[in-house]
Amino acid sequence: MRFRRAQSRRSAERYSALKGIQDILPPDIYIWQRVEETAREIFSAYGFQELRAPIIEATEIFIRSIGETTDIVEKEMYTFSDKAGRSITLRPEGTAPVVRCYVENHLYNLPSPQKFFYSGPMFRYERPQAGRFRQFFQIGVEAFGTSDPKLDAEIFSMLRLFIERLGLKGLNFEVNSIGCEKCRPDYRKALLNFFSGRINGLCPDCKRRYEYNPLRILDCKVDVCIELRKGAPRVMDFLCNECREHFNALLSLLKLLNVPYVINPDMVRGLDYYTRTTFEVTSEQLGAQNAVAAGGRYDRLVEEFGGPPTPAIGFAIGMERLVALLRTPTLNQVQGELRTPAPEIFIATIGAPAEKEGLVIANRLREKGIWVEVGYAGNSLKSQLRRADRLSAGYVLIIGDDEISSGKLKWKRLSDGSQGEILFQEVYDFFFKNLRLIQS
Ligand code: HAM
Q1: Model's pTM, two decimal places?
Q2: What is the dotted CATH code of the domain comprising 345-434?
Q3: What is the mean pLDDT of residues 108-115?
Q4: Which label site among 97, 149, 379, 396 has the fewest CB atoms less than 10 Å from its CB?
């Protein structure tokens, strides 16, 4: 018997999570929850409502929106055929599914702007490294229905407030404008011109990109391409009047709202759907994968998906990177506040009648929302107290035969060792009126 159990334990240990995919456990989960609660609170104040789109979509949705020649579509999607032979993809990002949902559900018929937030796992088959995973979580927002730069500025200030509320410091807000379908053709021409004498040196992917989408060369991670694109024309210098006005208006609104920013004219986002405003929130503490959040306008995408012309803007926060920053004590103030929760009461019992009595008391207290733990499987008092200690329980209640016959149970507060006795029937009042007050 013992042999069989040992063997099955060994085979269970052979299983591990897939490469680049991680478990999220306590106590880390409390940082995650804190981030999610903060996002919900702040995004709601700006009028964003939660939307839950599916994790899988028809592959076409991502190809059409993110772009055929992007790294995500070319190399990183988890794509498979379902049993009916349809091509399905695990979402590599959240914008395309939300746009699909917006169009499919005719949400454009509701008063504009419509503002949504979402959170959940995304999947990209990237080479895992610090801050880069194959399953990662995003909290994202998308707002539809106005091209007013006020909306861009509001979204920026919301993101800044969110980061500040979490106590994070030293993040950079980088902003750029990458123009629209009016100014893009001239820029494209300038890029083709610039790279025409350099084609032979480009990586095979970029040779192809030169033909189909030269802007993507600016996003290539291969060293030779990074070298060859030095001195390439910048999109900022090709903006049409409307795009320039939009950008200038955004910058003055950011000043008005005290959102510190830096213009990064070299910022190229890795997705094709962007128009005009693009931005990234970066941290020097994160190493190579330094973007904690990123986003921008995508004024043409709703139309591409069959909806009416509807300008839109959004961003997504990378949860793992944000949590990594929150875990770095020098960078933040929340660390101290993020204590691992502990049971308020541990009920230690001696003997079968006391065990039953303890279970009834535990249940009554739990009904009132108090976290109560009990001892199990006839463990000795000593081992139950050890467990209470390891759990950092607030109070221990001890019930044995003596307590049952006297009608009184013993309590002990573990933080200072104070103790006393209370009648069984007073236990609820005692915890509500006295101990809860003492704790708060
Ligand atoms: P993105 O820049 O691809 O944009 O991703 C946004 C954020 O997700 C990144 O800044 C990063 O923090 C996190 N992230 C991306 N890939 C990984 C990864 N492999 N491992 C860990 N974290 C990662 C988008 O996804 C757009 N949908 C954002 C958006 C929303 N634009 C408009 N609306």
Answers
A1: 0.91
A2: 3.40.50.800
A3: 97
A4: 379
